[in-house]
């Protein structure tokens, strides 16, 4: 299902050191990461899971397989991992999916509860923005709950336009025009932690 396309540049592994000295690796997700993704999703608190899915449901195994075994021509998922007890632990994921237009992609991000508010969201979403731009995406769009102050602050920091959804004040639409967004700006945001 996830045949690698030789025409698309693949994001490289990146190492980032958090303020407390923890080394974080940001890399593309692989089908082999299913167990990491399962453990990550299972470890999210109910409020974090709700903010991500805007529902109380948990993703099914079939959905988790779909989240890890991706179609690289139409989507990208970057995971953040740290070493934990001699193995890799997933602490965040950011992804985009091109749905109806190859120039526009819907994005999403979620961090484990213990990594929220530590700069990882800025770094991870900055990496996703840079990758989207390099893959020809001209606009990133997303939605979040209007009460999700952390996501709203992160989106604002990275230059997304925020607008209350006209159909529901409980939803805020997030839009970033990458056509006018210099690739260097994404790197600056990442490096400006």
Rounded to the nearest angstrom, the radius of gyration is 16 Å
Oligomer: single chain
Supply the CATH superfamily name: Gcn5-related N-acetyltransferase (GNAT)
| CATH class category name | Alpha Beta
Mean pLDDT: 86
Residue stretches low in confidence (pLDDT < 50, at least 5 long) are 1-9
CATH-scheme architecture: 3-Layer(aba) Sandwich
The biggest beta sheet reads: 8 strands, mixed
Shape: globular
End-to-end Cα distance, whole Å, is 36 Å
- Spatial strand arrangement across the major sheet: 1-2-3-4-5-6-8-7
The SS-based structural class is alpha+beta
Along the chain, the helix and strand elements come as: EEHHHEEEHEHEEH
Overall helicity:
25-40%
Counting DSSP E segments of at least 2 residues, the number of strands comes to 8
Provide the CATH topology: Aminopeptidase
What's the total helix number? Answer: 6
Number of domains: 1
What characteristics describe this protein?
8-stranded mixed sheet; disordered N terminus; 32% strand; Aminopeptidase
Could you explain how this protein is built, in words?
- With 193 residues, this protein is of the alpha+beta class.
- The chain has a single domain (14-191), classed as Gcn5-related N-acetyltransferase (GNAT) (Aminopeptidase).
- Helices cover 31% and strands 32% of the residues.
- It has an eight-stranded mixed beta sheet, with helices on both faces.
- Helix 4 (120-134) runs antiparallel to helix 6 (183-191).
């Amino acid at each position: 299902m996830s045949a690698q396309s030789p025409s698309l540049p693949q994001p490289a592994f990146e190492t980032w050191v958090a303020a407390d000295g923890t080394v974080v690796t940001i890399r593309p997700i692989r089908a082999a990461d299913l167990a990491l993704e399962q453990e990550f999703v299972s470890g999210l608190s109910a409020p974090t899971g709700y903010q991500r899915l805007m529902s109380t449901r948990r993703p099914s195994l079939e959905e988790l397989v779909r989240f890890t075994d991706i179609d690289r021509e139409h989507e990208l998922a970057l995971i953040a991992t740290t070493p934990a007890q001699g193995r890799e632990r997933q602490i965040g994921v950011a992804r985009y999916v091109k749905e109806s237009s190859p120039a526009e992609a819907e994005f999403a991000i979620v961090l484990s509860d213990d990594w929220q508010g530590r700069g990882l969201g800025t770094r991870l979403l900055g990496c996703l923005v840079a990758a989207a731009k390099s893959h020809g995406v001209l606009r990133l769009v997303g939605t979040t709950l209007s009460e999700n102050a952390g996501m709203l602050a992160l989106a604002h920091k990275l230059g997304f336009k925020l607008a209350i959804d006209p159909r529901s004040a409980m939803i805020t639409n997030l839009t970033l025009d990458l056509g006018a967004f210099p690739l260097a700006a994404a790197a600056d945001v990442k490096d400006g932690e």
